[in-house]
Amino acid sequence: MLFSYPAVMSQILYIDQYAYQLPTNYSRNIPPGKNTTVYIGVNVNRVSGVDENKEEITLDVFLQVSWEETRLKVPPGMPYIDLPWEFRQLIWTPDLYIWQLQTMRILSVLQEMASLRLYANRTVSVSIGATITIKCEMNFVLYPLDVQNCAIDFSSYKYTREDVRFEWREVAPWFGLAGEQRREFRLPKYVVTFVTDKSKHIRNFGEGEHSAARLQIKLSRELRGYLLESYLPSSLFVIISWGSFCVIPEIVPGRMVLLVTTLLSLVTMFDTVSTNSPDALELKCIEVWLISCTIFVFLALLEYFVVLFGIRYDKSWSRRRQDLRRAASAVQLAPTLHINHTQRLSTPVSGTPQGGVFSPQLSVEDEGLKQQFSHQTIQRLSSSDRRLRRDNKVGCETRTVSKDSPILDTIPGDTSGSFLVRFAAMADRGVMFCGAQHGALDKFALMVFPICFFLFTIIYWTTYLSEAHRAMPD
Questions:
Q1: What is the average pLDDT across 100-126?
Q2: What is the phi/psi pair of residue 469, to 5°?
Q3: What is the pTM of this model?
Q4: Per-position b or e across 26-61, b if 16+ CB within 10 A of its CB
Q5: Contact of 48 with 58, CB cutoff 8 Å
Q6: Buried (b) or exposed (e) across 386-423, using 16+ Cβ within 10 A?
């Protein structure tokens, strides 16, 4: 079949030996009739890419647009005729408007991939192979549990729904190389699914309501990679930090290296994920997880600081307790020395050689030295005893934190004491408990930290999975 056509304004098309001429009263500016139905068919060949930063999707599609043109007819004995692509300028075509379209480029090799065909039932069909870029509004708050839904509307820019209606028409499905129909496209990060919405949609703009045919694009993210790259390593870092509770607190370098290295690793992971992930107005789902893991490791480090401070405080208490015990022993010994001294006042000073060494006995001249020693000892005891009673004014049971630490029994609380005194006593006992040499706080933390992290994990996944399910369209 050979085509030859002169200038466009001649409106004459030569097909083989026949001259096909448009009706004399034909107007390309008037639709074929009132309430003309335009059928849209889209066959997706390939999803070229998804740009999350620009919120764009690039597709290779075959677009088919058809409508009934009662003013045109096919020559007798021919089921259809293929019209030259330039012939579209002579007939009425719908002013198709794709709302989310950014760019469109018709594919071409030797010539453009576009066809115009007129069937015997007076239906005009336009087919185009093109690469299109669609703008898609995306919300990344649930990243990487997010499911993006993009709606592409095909409508008329000029004609309202009283003049032109748009509906979907099923086209021949596209089959892959394996002979299976492509219902979805798998990308490194997404699974892309296309669904035609059969319901009627209306767009309000300009002079009235415009009919639209809608194509739904669903982007489901592949979660396996994020679980292996982010969630699993961060969870292991938190679990490793619990091992510091089993290290003896006195081994400061080993415990500090373990906690600080784990903390810096989580901070680096958070920075990498934030840089490589798309922007969002709020904290993303994965950022909440990494921040929480960082906080758990930081609390483990803070717990070690408290233990170190408690150990230092406990040693100070041990020295004070030893001073008090020595003072108490001196007080108990002072009356005995006084009695012995009184008895020996009436006895002259004498000495007995023992092994060539003279061993003197107490004399009257030693009385001043003994009294001075007794006075100083009693004064130290009184001062230490007053400090002990002041520090332990509010009575409660105090744990034995070390062999030399204070052992205090339960005594009635003094209701007349001030709030600051009671608070100081409680803080004093708390710090001594933290600095216990048998690791009381570490044992407590080794139970509490795993339970809290397990509860957080349940709450986190329950909350965000329900939010992701709620965000999915019906």
A1: 90
A2: -65, -35
A3: 0.67
A4: eeeeebbeeebebbbbbbbbebeebebeebbbbbeb
A5: yes
A6: eeeeebbbbeeebeebbeebbebeeeeeeeeeeeeebe
